[in-house]
Design goal:
This protein has about 120 residues and is mainly beta. The chain is built from one helix and seven strands; from the N terminus they run αβββββββ. The chain has one domain: Jelly Rolls, CATH 2.60.120.10. A hairpin with a 2-residue loop joins strand 1 and strand 2.
């Protein structure tokens, strides 16, 4: 049982759209990520996904609306809902999602991260 300093962990990496595992509980990964630019449209058929913004402003586009998250706000995207994260400037987020969650969900491509680094 070790405490986790989020700032220290975020300082260990600089790449975007490559989540890092910082914890695990009850079949869930706790991940940190830095985001910049537009991600891909995708959904997760079997997993809900929680985005908690630490720093910056994150837009999450849905087919019928866009939700803007500021620091210390979070959003749970229900399983099966198509979405696309957008970060005009660098955003730091914490993600809570089942271990089985692939970052690009039902869409695979250059941004897909199959094996995540634990830091």
């Amino acid at each position: 049982m070790d405490k986790v300093n989020i700032t220290e962990k975020l300082n260990l990496f600089s790449e975007h759209w490559n989540p890092k595992i910082v914890g695990e509980l009850n079949g869930q990964h706790v991940k940190l990520a830095k985001l910049k630019g537009e991600f891909v449209w995708h959904s997760h058929a079997h997993e809900d996904e929680l985005f908690y913004v630490i720093k910056g402003t994150l837009k999450i586009a849905f087919r019928d609306k866009t939700i803007i998250l500021n620091p210390h706000e979070f959003l749970i995207v229900p399983k099966g809902v198509e979405h696309k994260p957008i970060a005009d400037e660098e955003v730091e987020v914490m993600l809570f999602e089942p271990i089985s969650t692939l970052n690009t969900g039902d869409t695979t491509g250059d941004l897909t991260q199959v094996v995540l680094e634990k830091i």
